[in-house]
Amino acid sequence: MKKIFLDKGHGGSDPGAVANGLQEKTLTHQIVEYAVDHLFENYTGFELRVSRAGDQTLTLSQRAKMANDWGADVFVSVHINAGKGTGFESYVYNGGVSSQTIALQNVLHGEILFAMRGFGAITDRGKKRANYAVLRETKMPAVLTENLFIDSNDAKYLKNEAFLKAVGEAHARGVAKFLGLPQKAKPQPQKQQKESDGKLYRVQVGAFSDRENAERLAEELKGQGYPAVIV
Ligand SMILES: [Zn+2]
Questions:
Q1: 24 is catalytic
Q2: Which of 8-12, 102-106, 205-209 has the lowest mean pLDDT?
Q3: DSSP state of 43
Q4: Which listed residue, 24, 92, 156, 218, has the most CB atoms within 10 A of its CB?
């Protein structure tokens, strides 16, 4: 079982960036919850923990320690940017990082940017490195994502629930690809769906209130070589 640790940036007494009627801590909670749902719906072979279930206050070191003590295989910290810029960027630690960490950044960055661009022309601000505590103090491959700017025109995306869901699901796909998680078997489609998928068309040639009339037509059709069924 692979261990996934998802960190909802900020929380509790620390709202993170606040602008346009939005709070970073709420958006990071929503995005991570969408990621969690998508992982459990689509993949197996993993355990998952989040840094906070609700609106708790946590220090950066507490978040890293939670992941380290648990022995997580992957750590992703979700944030919203501020500073009136625009676009998406991702971070790994700017000290020594493993090739696995770079691989995680590559797959997450690609998945998230692709998903965002389904909603508009999102700027790619690049794969970056920084001395962030949660990246420095975590022992496993760790990436921090900055999902658009709360205090610019980007806010229109952040106010769109479908956008937050797509971004959360992209985080989930990135982590799943990085860990090579098996996909859940899809439930078998029902017979009716199979028929329509396979383009099976039925033709009705008559509707009668009198069964005798229906039987007469059925016999006539059979006589002409057509399979006839009375329903
Ligand atoms: Zn933040």
A1: no
A2: 205-209
A3: B
A4: 24
Q: Domain residues of the chain, as ranges?
A: 2-179, 191-223
Phi, psi of 61 (to 5 degrees): -65, -35
- Between the CA of 84 and the centroid of ligand 1 the distance, in Å, is 14
Q: What is the distance in A from the centroid of ligand 1 to the CA of 40? A: 26
Beta-ladder partners of 147? 88
Give distance in angstroms: CA of 202 to centre of ligand 1: 58
Quick check: 145 and 77 in contact, CB under 8 A? yes
Strand ranges inside 33-141, DSSP E: 46-50, 74-81, 88-93, 124-130
Coil, helix or strand for 183? strand
Domain spanning 2-179, CATH class:
alpha beta
Task: Report the sign of the C-alpha dihedral through residues 101, 102, 108, 113, in that order.
Answer: positive
Residue with token string 């078997």: 185
**Looking at 24, 89, 137, 146, which residue is catalytic?**
146
The Cα 34–Cα 27 span in angstroms is 11
- Token output for 97: 């990082």
Residues around the ion ligand 1 (C-beta < 5 A): 9, 16, 79
pLDDT band (50, 70, 90) for residue 224 = confident
45 Cα–ligand 1 center, Å? 30
For residues 200 and 217, what is the distance between their CA atoms, to the nearest angstrom? 23
